[in-house]
């Protein structure tokens, strides 16, 4: 896949986890940050991801009610299979 110098919003979304984990190669990090400096939508998305990670990082498995945990697991399994989750 050939990249232009300018990063698209789609590319940014695809590599945001690597950016947040600090594993993005230096050249890609520069492109990411250059795009971020000019794109308010991606700035907002990055902040939302940081807030989500921060919030979920404080959530323990024990804090999730058993029925909610089961519904989440069903939803993820259905998503992975490419189908809609079953309603109960």
What does this structure look like?
The protein is an all-alpha fold. It has two domains: 1-57, no CATH class; 61-88. Helix content is 68%, strand content 0%. The protein has helices spanning 9-21, 26-38, 40-57, 66-81. Helix 1 packs parallel to helix 3. The longest helix has 18 residues, at 40-57. The model has no long low-confidence stretch (mean pLDDT 86).
Give the gist of this structure.
With 88 residues, the protein is mainly alpha-helical. The protein has four helices and no strands. α1 runs parallel beside α3 (40-57).
Q: Sheet bearing the most strands, described?
A: none
> Which regions have little confidence, pLDDT < 50, spanning 5+ residues?
none
N-to-C CA distance: 43 Å
pLDDT averaged over residues: 86
Task: Tell me the quaternary state.
Answer: single chain
Radius of gyration: 17 Å
Q: Please, how many helices? A: 4
Task: Compute the number of strand runs.
Answer: 0
Q: Work out the count of structural domains.
A: 2
- The amount of helix comes to 55-70%
The 3D shape can be described as: elongated
Structural class: mainly alpha
* Strand/helix succession: HHHH
Range of strand content: under 5%
Secondary-structure map:
Blueprint: H1 9-21, H2 26-38, H3 40-57, H4 66-81
Essential attributes:
88 residues; mainly alpha; 2 domains; 4 helices
